């Protein structure tokens, strides 16, 4: 097993929503626009729904302002297993969320025994969610003006995108029992660019509770710590190791590189101790209205935010810090969400391969010699798994060595695969579909990889300290 402690902030680990009051709406600023006021017949053509009856209500006194509003009610009959009640409203014309500050609307719901559980989604042109924001509504049957600051939305569970890519807004009714909802004057409020509050200052504020933190920043990376005595400069060697990473990602993943626009660098937060590390995710969960399961391992990455904690006995330039920062960079540059079942295997391929290149002591060479000398058990009970099994399992530390070697094989022998596979995964394909799109068959790939590894890691290797893999040229220049 590769000796690093890594755990991801997976969408599947984001559990129950937390309820807090939204910020009151403020006046419109430049950059805002109306999505739908529901006064024009054209508005009806922007609306579609699943599991919901919808209509433009023109009855007297029904609207919050003007003469019409959008009326929603559940369709009769039992909801199908796994289905959602949702209504989608397309953005008009060439309107862009990029200059927006908040989503706002007048909102009214029929009386209910409990607050309604609702979730906004931002959809791309393919109809896939790329941002989300959960909320509760207990309006008591009267109109309320509500606002949802875009800076507090998070990416979707298995897809990342930019605000400029938003093509529609979707409201999901998560409550099983509801009677009716009315929406009026759905708008994007103008102001500072979307996501501006998710910049460096916002992140450091929520990470270190407004306290002082030492920070180093260079070439698109930020390392920040509040560990007493650590200081920022101690992390300089680690920062130097991270600087070539974007160039390596660009060379290896080519056409899959689609960097997300951001107002802060790819970030590694190193907390003073484990308690501070865990507490950060409670605060982040509060801001995002989700409950993030406390990390059990020594490293944890949520989207493009990598975290760990300081251990004076182990110093600054640690494999776990580098490993987590790689995950955050892959999320930012390739839109691969850490911890999701469909993306985590490729995330781990790259992170563990680079870790073994730059921190070779993380794993004894004998681990490869031993496992490449034994046939892979097709029942999946061996240390090395059939690739079809590996790609379908939840990835854990026992898979890291195999995934590192698979990445090395693709880099050396199949350089066309990483760009094609990464792009397909980011677009929603599973591993089998991604390799098929790349013109590869998983069974044949497994044989080629295993033959390559068996030849490379022979028992009669002259020196047990022989590197696992060559150091990539991007780091060789340092």
What would you note in describing this structure?
The chain is of the alpha+beta class. The chain folds into 2 domains: 7-13 and 197-476, Neutral Protease, domain 2 (Orthogonal Bundle); 33-190, Galactose-binding lectin (Jelly Rolls), CATH 2.60.120.430. Helix content is 27%, strand content 22%. The chain is built from 13 helices and 18 strands. The protein has helices at residues 200-207, 236-242, 245-253, 274-288, 319-334, 344-358, 366-372, 387-390, 400-413, 417-426, 431-437, 442-456, 473-476; strands at residues 7-8, 33-36, 47-50, 52-57, 69-74, 85-90, 100-109, 116-123, 129-137, 144-149, 154-155, 168-173, 181-190, 214-218, 221-225, 266-271, 299-302, 305-309. The strands form 3 sheets. Strands 1-17-18-16-15-14 form a 6-stranded mixed sheet. A hairpin with a 5-residue loop joins strand 8 (116-123) and strand 9 (129-137). Helix 3 (245-253) packs across helix 5, helix 5 (319-334) crosses helix 6 and helix 6 crosses helix 9. It is globular.
């Amino acid at each position: 097993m590769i000796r690093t402690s890594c755990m991801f902030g997976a969408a599947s680990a984001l559990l129950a929503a937390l309820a807090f009051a939204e910020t009151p709406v403020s006046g419109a600023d430049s950059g805002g626009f109306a999505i739908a006021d529901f006064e024009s017949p054209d508005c009806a053509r922007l609306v579609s729904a699943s599991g919901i009856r919808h209509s433009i209500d023109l009855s007297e006194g029904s609207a919050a302002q003007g003469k019409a509003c959008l009326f929603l009610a559940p369709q009769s009959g039992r909801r199908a297993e796994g289905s959602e009640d949702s209504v989608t409203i397309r953005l008009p014309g060439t309107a862009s969320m990029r200059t927006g500050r908040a989503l706002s609307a007048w909102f009214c719901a029929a009386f209910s025994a409990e607050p309604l559980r609702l979730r906004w989604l931002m959809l791309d042109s393919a109809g896939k969610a790329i941002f989300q924001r959960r909320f509760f509504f207990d309006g008591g049957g009267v109109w309320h003006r509500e606002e949802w600051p875009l800076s507090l939305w998070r990416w979707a569970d298995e897809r990342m995108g930019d605000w400029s890519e938003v093509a529609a807004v979707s409201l999901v009714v998560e409550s099983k029992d509801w009677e009716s909802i009315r929406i009026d004057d759905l708008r994007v409020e103008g102001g500072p660019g979307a996501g501006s509050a998710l910049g460096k200052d916002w992140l450091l504020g929520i990470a270190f509770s407004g306290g002082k933190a030492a920070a180093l920043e260079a070439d698109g990376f930020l390392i920040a710590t509040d560990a007493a005595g650590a200081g920022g400069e101690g992390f300089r060697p680690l920062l130097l190791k991270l600087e070539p990473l974007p160039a390596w990602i660009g060379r290896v993943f080519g056409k899959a590189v689609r960097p997300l626009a951001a107002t802060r660098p790819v970030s590694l937060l190193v907390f003073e101790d484990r308690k501070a590390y865990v507490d950060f995710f409670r605060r982040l969960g509060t801001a995002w209205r989700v409950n993030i399961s406390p990390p059990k391992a020594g490293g944890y990455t949520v989207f493009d935010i990598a975290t760990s904690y300081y251990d004076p006995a182990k110093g600054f330039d640690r494999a776990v810090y580098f490993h987590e920062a790689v995950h955050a960079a892959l999320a930012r540059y390739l839109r691969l969400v850490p911890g999701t079942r469909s993306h985590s295997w490729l995330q781990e391929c790259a992170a563990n391969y680079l870790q073994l290149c730059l921190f070779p002591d993380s794993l004894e060479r004998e681990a490869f010699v031993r496992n490449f000398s034994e046939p892979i058990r097709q029942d999946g009970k061996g240390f090395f798994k059939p690739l079809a099994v590996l790609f379908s399992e939840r990835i854990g530390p026992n898979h890291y060595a195999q995934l590192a070697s698979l990445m090395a094989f693709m880099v050396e022998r199949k350089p066309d695969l990483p760009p094609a596979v990464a792009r397909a995964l980011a677009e929603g394909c599973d591993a089998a579909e991604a390799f098929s799109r790349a013109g590869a068959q998983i069974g044949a790939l497994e044989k080629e990889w295993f033959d390559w590894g068996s030849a490379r890691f022979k028992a009669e290797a002259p020196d047990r300290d022989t590197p696992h893999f060559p150091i990539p040229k991007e780091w060789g220049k340092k």
